[in-house]
Write a structure and sequence with these properties.
TATA-Binding Protein; Endonuclease III, domain 1; five-stranded antiparallel beta sheet; two-stranded antiparallel sheet; 16 helices; DNA-binding
DNA sequence: CCCACACCGATT
DNA sequence: ATCGGTGTGG
């Protein structure tokens, strides 16, 4: 077990925002306010906060006013935490680079301070997690991913609950469709084990190996899986394989892109050719920051449609 | 290239 | 009643 404490400028990280913005689905807030999360073979218990609370309790803290303290307990070293939250990237610099290329994103960036594109450690976990996302909402996705995780090996007992490592493809392939349907997976109860069986037919490490290909080739290989279309393939490319030029275009990104860039397409359906058009446009504009730009547009639109349906 | 439909549960 | 990724079929 490792305990460590990171101190960052507050502008660098909003952990609750990062783990609640539809990138990962295995984090929960405990009644104490701490966050419990699992990523690959790592678990984390995180307490984080601006030191405003400290200041209220102990008015004279020596810490700078804009410091964020992150206290982590984990079975893995600090580098894994830094990698997951991509802390080697300076968020203010990313924001500035995005605004240089797309000043129209200023309101989005300002509305979501501390939002980062995460880098989960296991592409297989990312693939199966995002197979739960179509036609779905964050709450149910989280339940479904938790149900899948129960099939994995226990890695820790924390606060009375058992954290599981996400199951491998062989384990998922063995789950009967009826069992997943009984757990509320709907038609995904068939496609999830089916994708797992397809992975088993590939060479070992086929999925992780896609990260060595050019983005376009990795994307196209992922689309070759029955049950994986362009959107899921881009989610795996961005979050699972680290292709920052990927832009998963779902209904939220489509709406945001239409408002900002394609007013003549508002209300039209998202066809495959328009999918490519949006992705190409964003890549031309944001280059290697496309994934970051996508995350601002996606989550802003998600919040927007929650407050005001339609 | 675009559309219409089924899938299934959530939301209106 | 409508929505939403993907597959299928027109």
């Amino acid at each position: 077990m490792n305990r460590y404490e990171l101190e960052l400028p507050v502008a660098e990280l909003d952990l609750p925002l990062c783990v609640s913005s539809g990138q990962v689905f295995r984090w929960e807030r405990l009644p104490s306010g701490a966050w419990l999360g699992v990523d690959g073979d790592a678990w984390y218990r995180v307490e984080t906060g601006v030191c405003a609370h400290d200041r209220a309790v102990r008015p004279k803290v020596e810490r700078p006013l804009d410091a964020l303290r992150v206290c982590v307990e984990s079975n893995r070293p600090p580098d894994r935490f830094r990698s997951l939250f991509r802390l080697e990237a300076s968020l203010p610099e990313v924001e500035r680079a995005i605004l240089d290329r797309g000043p129209e994103l200023a309101t989005f960036v300002r509305a979501l301070p501390g939002l980062r594109v995460l880098r989960p450690s296991d592409p297989s976990e990312v693939l199966f997690s995002f197979l739960c996302t179509p036609n779905n909402n964050l709450e149910r996705i989280t339940r479904m991913v938790a149900a899948l995780a129960e099939y994995g090996e226990p890695i820790a007992e924390l606060h009375g609950r058992v954290a599981h490592r996400f199951p491998d493809a062989a384990r998922i392939a063995a789950i009967p469709e009826s069992e997943l349907r009984a757990k509320g997976f709907g038609y995904r109860g068939r496609s999830i084990p089916n994708v797992a069986r397809q992975l088993l037919r590939m060479p070992e490490d086929w999925l992780a190996g896609l990260s060595k290909l050019p983005y376009v080739e990795a994307h196209s290989k992922l689309c070759g899986l029955d049950g994986v279309g362009p959107k899921l393939a881009d989610c795996v490319c961005l979050f699972g394989l680290g292709f920052l030029e990927a832009a998963p275009v779902d209904t939220h990104l489509w709406q945001a892109a239409c408002r900002l860039y394609f007013p003549h397409l508002r209300g039209k359906s998202l066809t495959e050719s328009r999918y490519r058009e949006v992705g190409g446009f964003l890549r031309a504009r944001f280059g290697p920051l496309t994934g970051w730009a996508h995350q601002y547009l996606f989550y802003d639109n998600l919040l927007r449609t929650r407050r005001r349906p339609q």
